[in-house]
């Protein structure tokens, strides 16, 4: 995990900005909303707010604050997510039964750690600060990851409520899918991975070379309208389209549509953070698993891009202005994918909208070394049975994602805001296409 030099003033300003944003996201939610855990993968909002605070307390204050003692001894047990080196922790699947501390008490915990963090940073000489900066900056990016998770998780929580509550935002106007253009990308020996001095996670390192055959990328994401055609053509009933594990999941779970779709009197509706609305054909399909994405690609006679193809392709043809990646990220406050808009001759929807499944297993890059100590558990130990997703989504904080960023989820996961971009040529498809 790399980072650039920071002054104490800049570090505190950034700290306050990130921490305040978490509280803004939680503000529309009642203490009751913040307590519910609707399934094992989902964490209560107040748990996210507390866990990111625990991260700063554990990895920064505990090792650097003079006369440190924890705010509450048992919080170390309650709010440790998965760090074996830190000690035992509470069962993830039962976070929703922990009614105390309540949402208000979590706010007090946050305030206490915030004061101590500011005091610590203000008290350090520049040399000590430089040594601590990478951990504090990791805490910023960690909290941003949980800001996204907080929204994904509350979406699932609210979806379980028969009243179908709205979190925020307004739905897009109804639109129809437009044409997909295919962008040719020259292959060859290309550089993949984090470059430069800006922050990145350890799993994006080291930068290395990969050989790619020439390939094509769809210039936009697969839409709901196209997904309806897949469904109408028996997409969820035809085993020849599916990976074996995926087909087993279809049968075991009774999948017949994306996660948040529900059929009311023959009309498909979709639960969103903006409310529950008829499925909008022109918007990207979202909340599909890797298995579904792969089956759709087989049906369409295409394939999913590898993560190296995605990264190289977006560097060649991705949209960006001088300073920023341009897209429907969380700063738009849409809280949902949007239609692609007119063709641009570049990749549309590369940043934001939906995390894009790739065909790449989440594995270490050549020469990967996790950080020493407990922080080394951040990424490396999850490099098994997960697939890589790229590009961020409508719930990803602006400034958090980048072209080398590697998100990852198990291939059956659907509660993440995930979608599909197709590829063609180059790397082989796992199965031949059969339609479209
Ligand atoms: Fe975490």
From TrEMBL:
Extract the Pfam families matched here: FGE-sulfatase
Q: Which InterPro entries match?
A: CTDL_fold, EgtB, Sulfatase_Mod_Factor_Kinase, SUMF_dom, SUMF_sf
Q: Where is the Sulfatase-modifying factor enzyme-like domain?
A: 181-423
Give the SUPFAM superfamilies listed for this entry: C-type lectin-like
Organism field: Nocardioides flavus (ex Wang et al. 2016)
Question: Any idea what this protein is called?
Answer: Ergothioneine biosynthesis protein EgtB
């Amino acid at each position: 995990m790399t980072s650039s030099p920071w002054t104490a003033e800049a570090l505190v300003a950034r700290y306050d900005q990130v921490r305040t944003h978490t509280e803004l996201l939680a503000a529309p939610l009642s203490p009751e909303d913040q307590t519910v855990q609707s399934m094992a993968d989902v964490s209560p909002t107040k748990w996210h707010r507390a866990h990111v605070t625990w991260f700063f307390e554990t990895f920064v204050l505990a090792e650097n604050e003079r006369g440190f003692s924890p705010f509450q001894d048992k919080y170390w047990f309650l709010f440790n997510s998965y760090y074996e080196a830190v000690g035992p922790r509470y069962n993830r699947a039962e976070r929703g039964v922990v009614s105390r501390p309540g949402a208000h008490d979590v706010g007090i915990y946050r305030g206490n750690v915030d004061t101590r963090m500011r005091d610590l940073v203000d008290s350090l000489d520049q040399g000590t600060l430089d040594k601590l900066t990478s951990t504090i900056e990791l805490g910023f990016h960690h909290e941003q990851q949980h800001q996204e998770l907080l929204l994904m998780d509350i979406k699932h929580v609210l979806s379980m409520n028969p009243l179908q509550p709205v979190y925020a935002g307004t739905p897009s106007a109804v639109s129809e899918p437009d044409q997909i253009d295919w962008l040719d990308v020259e292959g060859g020996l290309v550089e993949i991975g984090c470059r430069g001095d800006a922050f990145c996670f350890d799993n994006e390192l080291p930068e290395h070379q990969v050989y790619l055959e020439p390939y094509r990328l769809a210039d936009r994401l697969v839409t709901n309208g196209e997904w309806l055609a897949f469904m109408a053509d028996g997409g969820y009933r035809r085993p020849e389209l599916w990976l074996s594990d995926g087909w087993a999941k279809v049968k075991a779970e009774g999948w017949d549509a994306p996660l948040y779709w529900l059929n009311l009197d023959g009309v498909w509706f979709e639960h969103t953070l903006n409310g529950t609305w008829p499925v909008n054909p022109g918007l990207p399909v979202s909340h599909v698993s890797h298995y579904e994405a792969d089956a759709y690609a087989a049906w369409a006679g295409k394939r999913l891009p590898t993560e190296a193809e995605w990264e190289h392709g977006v560097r060649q043809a991705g949209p960006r202005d001088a300073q920023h990646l341009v897209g429907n990220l969380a700063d738009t406050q849409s809280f949902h994918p949007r239609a692609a808009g007119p063709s641009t001759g570049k990749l549309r929807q590369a940043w934001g909208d939906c995390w894009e499944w790739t065909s790449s297993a989440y594995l270490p890059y050549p020469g990967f070394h996790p950080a020493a100590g407990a922080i080394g558990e951040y990424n490396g130990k999850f490099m098994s049975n997960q697939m890589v997703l790229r590009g961020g989504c409508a719930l990803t904080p602006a400034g958090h994602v980048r072209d080398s960023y590697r998100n990852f989820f198990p291939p059956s996961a659907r509660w993440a805001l995930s979608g599909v971009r197709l590829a063609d040529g180059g790397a082989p498809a796992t199965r031949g296409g059969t339609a479209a």
